[in-house]
Amino acid sequence: MPVAEAPVPLRVLLRDDAVLRRLLTVTLVDTVGRGAFFTLTSLYLTTIVGVPAVAVGLGLTIAGGVGVVSSLAFGHLADRWSSRMMLVVLHVVQGLAVAAYVVVHDVVSLVVVASIVTLVQQGGSSVRSAAVGRAFPGEERVRIRATMRTVTNIGISAGTAVAAIPLAIGTGTAYRITLAAGGAFYLVSSVLLLGLPAARVDARARTAASPPPPGPSPYRDLRFLGVTALSGVFGIQFGLAEVGVPLWVVGHTRAPDVLVSALLLVNTGLVIALQVRLSRGTGDLRGAGRAMSRAGWLMAAACVVFAAAGWGSPLLATVALLAAAVLQAFAEILSSAAGWNLSFELAPPDRIGAYQGIYGTGYALGAMVAPAVVTLTAIDLGTPGWLILAAMFLASATGLAAIARRAAVSKASSAVRWRG
């Protein structure tokens, strides 16, 4: 039986691997734009454009349906076409679409622009995951994804800090200039992506320009479909941060509005500091299950504390919101690492694009319903709505942890039979 090789230290990979350095550079550039975009979008649409909060939630939900189809389609295409060129084109379109938010004036134009943004965002996520799965082996993929996540949050924190400027100024012009600048960062990333080597990231280079042979279908893999569905439910936490928390802070607490940026900075700062460190131990299925269970309890606690912020003085509301942001950040860190492991370990190597496309569909579905779920629960119902969200997050995390434990037992049993 061959002896498993020790993982290459991350500092060595960063020094010697040009593909990793290029991916991290691209990640840093485009997430600066994403940070500003995420911070401002909901408030821009409600306070500047004048679209009601519920209409914003429903409009973004409709647009999210496009992301579901996009994740599936681009995941399959990533097993056949050039991942590098697909990412280049998707970044160009995303940059133009983000900048197009400056011309949104009603629900219809919101749906059109948001649909394009969601199309390329979810499609690009599937393609990028497939490229990482091909470019890096085994347990290194979780470490690479953790590193990319860290860099992502460095970029998002920079973009969030920039977003504090239009939040403080409060004029439509300030919002629009910042959104247009956010789109420009994606265009810069598209140029940088041209430097990725096809031999490492493209399925076509692996198959001599021919389609891959038929392999296991993710549509018949009930275990993987379960992971996808439950991950999508837990992924609503991202919609909570992007839509629910800003609306809750501004409309339902006595905390200052500028705290919206501070909360996102707390989240990104903790992810930057701890994502790689806390991802250790999640490179196997048992570790992933333990991490997911902890994430569920942390996320449920965050929802309870967010609810409490609606009942206090400005000072108490501020303290509660900051505490909840810390809890949510730890839940995000652990759940992300666990999800990466499950999505790679439970996918056949020759069908990694299709499986990543299916996995991305879970998050796309979560993103599609998140605005409506969050606004109809936490924003409309207040404390009871937050408690509903707490129960939802805890239940989905418990289910994912159970799947991980059973998969670990199955894998161990198979290894014993193989040695015998």
Walk me through what this model shows.
Keywords: Cell membrane, Membrane, Transmembrane, Transmembrane helix, Transport. Pfam families: MFS_1. The chain crosses the membrane at residues 23-45, 51-74, 151-169, 175-196, 224-249, 255-274, 295-313, 319-342, 354-379, 385-404. It comes from Winogradskya consettensis. The protein is mostly helical. The chain has one domain (18-210, 217-419): MFS general substrate transporter like domains (Growth Hormone, Chain: A), CATH 1.20.1250. Helix content is 82%, strand content 0%. It is built from 16 helices and no strands. It has helices spanning 10-16, 18-49, 53-77, 83-99, 107-135, 140-169, 172-193, 198-201, 203-206, 222-234, 236-252, 259-279, 285-308, 314-345, 352-381, 383-419. The longest helix is centred in the C-terminal third of the chain and has 37 residues, at 383-419. It is globular, with a radius of gyration of 21 Å. It starts with 9 loop residues before the first helix and ends with a helix.
Would you spell out the secondary-structure blueprint of this structure?
Layout: H1 10-16, H2 18-49, H3 53-77, H4 83-99, H5 107-135, H6 140-169, H7 172-193, H8 198-201, H9 203-206, H10 222-234, H11 236-252, H12 259-279, H13 285-308, H14 314-345, H15 352-381, H16 383-419
Helix pairs in contact: 2-6, 2-7, 2-11, 3-5, 3-15, 4-5, 4-7, 5-15, 6-7, 6-12, 6-14, 10-14, 10-15, 10-16, 11-15, 12-14, 13-14, 13-16, 15-16
